[in-house]
Design a protein that fits this description.
With 425 residues, the protein is an alpha+beta fold. The chain folds into two domains: 269 residues, no CATH class; 135 residues, 3-Layer(aba) Sandwich (Protein Transport Mog1p, Chain A), CATH 3.40.1000. The strands form two sheets. The chain has an eight-stranded antiparallel beta sheet with strand order 1-2-3-4-8-7-6-5. A seven-stranded antiparallel beta sheet has the order 9-10-11-15-14-13-12, sandwiched between helices. Strand 9 and strand 10 form a beta hairpin. The N terminus is likely disordered.
């Protein structure tokens, strides 16, 4: 499917699809929170929707900042953390579009050098170095990035441009603040501007577990015409692998907003083909709302639900009977019955029920940075390929320290929830 459709589906359905990798599965909740600060990569996206954490707007929340493009000297050189640049289109704009082989490419009317010049014009006083860019003829979309220093320390900054269905779910997701139970951040606002555009201003961190306090601030704009402008900056010279050079990224939120809403980007945006209507997402695996069903099932055990969230086939609740918060997550999916996947249900922790359902239980340390976190999971696979996985933690948030000795629900209770026959009607 076209990339925009692929991304739109991923943004809406992160956590709905999952792989045999149980670590990736339990990450679904975190990734659902991160989806609103993770945008498309410079390269083509592949893999399941659970790879969403690796998707960035030409530089993801978790991977190489703004991809690679042409250096300001035309050499394609740039910051050391950026991968080798792809070949840029040459020849006529028509040839560039033909070579791009995708509706994401424009005619090439705006060059990489022009993108760099616009960024320089819009930035406040300071020095921009290590620039990289792509023009509108590039099949991966126009972008520009560099290292900006206003005299108070270097900060990485970059911007990408694309077109979306302004009325689609993807556009709405782009400018929606993430769930604080799934992602830690310092601030977020989502507002409608006078011209009807939607603007997200986000103040977060590069790593969900705050292993390094590299700050990630971003502005995401979606206009009524379907223009998508995504800007992000860091308080370090690179997204990863560089020391923090200043307390906050170089641009204030007001300056970040001004950069995103500038009409100087419209020449490039108008050169990109308009996005078609967003395709309807595939039907959910479950015939019931996972969040609602999880709440109902959890309440049977008499532990108060103090928070809840999720959508579609992913849901979570936070339980607390006065002994500390405990997160419970559920993921539901169909069509998981191939032999290779069934082979993962092996070992002493796997049992087979009389109806052929496979049940695998796990008890291991949490993997999201929270101190002393315990992670219990029950993974069930029915003979028809329908799968339900329920995970319990002894903390209300995987990146936070344990709040109790063990999860609020027992392994047996998690198993009962996973095997509930009403997940699929």
């Amino acid at each position: 499917m076209p990339f925009e459709d692929e991304l739109g589906e991923a943004l809406r359905r992160t956590g709905d699809g999952f792989t045999a990798d149980r670590t990736a599965l339990v990450d679904a909740g975190e990734r659902r929170g991160r989806r609103l600060v993770a945008r498309r990569r410079a390269a083509v996206v592949g893999g399941s929707v659970l790879a969403l954490a690796a998707i960035g707007t030409a530089g993801a929340y978790t991977g190489g900042l703004f991809g690679a493009g042409s250096g300001s000297d035309g050499s394609g050189s740039g910051p050391a953390n950026v991968a080798a640049p792809p070949a840029l289109p040459t020849g006529s704009p028509g040839q560039a579009r033909e070579r791009a082989g995708t509706e994401r490419a424009g005619t090439g009317a705006v060059s990489a050098e022009q993108m760099i010049n616009v960024l320089k014009e819009l930035l406040p006083a300071g020095q921009l170095t290590g620039t990289q860019a792509r023009g509108t003829g590039d099949e991966t979309g126009p972008m520009v990035s560099g290292v900006f220093d206003d005299g108070k320390g270097k900060g990485s900054i970059g911007l990408s441009l694309s077109r979306v269905d302004a009325k689609g779910a993807m556009a709405a997701d782009m400018v929606k603040c993430p769930d604080r139970n799934l992602l830690e951040y310092d601030g977020c606002s989502s507002d409608t501007l006078a011209d009807g555009s939607k603007l997200l201003l986000f103040q977060g961190y590069e790593y969900a577990d705050r292993r390094v306090d590299t700050k990630n601030w971003r502005a995401t704009l979606v206009t009524p015409q379907g223009f998508l402008v995504d800007v992000q900056e860091y308080n370090a010279a690179a997204e990863k692998g560089k020391p923090i050079t200043r307390p906050t990224p170089p641009l204030t939120l007001a300056q970040l907003q001004a950069l995103a809403v500038s009409p100087l980007w419209h020449l490039a945006l108008n050169d990109l083909p308009a996005a078609g209507p967003e395709k309807a997402p595939p039907p959910p695996a479950s015939s019931v709302s996972a969040p609602d069903r999880l709440v109902a099932l959890s309440q049977k055990y008499g532990v108060p639900v103090v928070d809840k969230g999720g959508e579609g086939d992913y849901g979570y609740v936070v339980l607390d009977e006065g002994k500390g918060r405990s997160l419970v997550q559920v993921n539901v999916q169909s069509h998981m019955g191939d032999a290779a996947f069934r082979a993962t249900f092996t070992g002493p922790d796997t049992t087979t029920l009389p109806d052929g359902t496979l049940v695998k239980t796990e008890d291991k340390p949490g993997e999201k940075g929270g101190a002393n976190v315990v992670w219990w999971s029950v993974d069930t696979l029915r003979p028809d390929g329908k799968r339900v996985v329920v995970s319990g933690f002894n903390t209300g948030k995987q990146t936070s320290p344990a709040t109790r000795d063990k999860p609020a629900l027992t392994q047996l209770q998690l198993r009962e929830i996973a095997l509930d026959p009403k997940w699929f009607g």
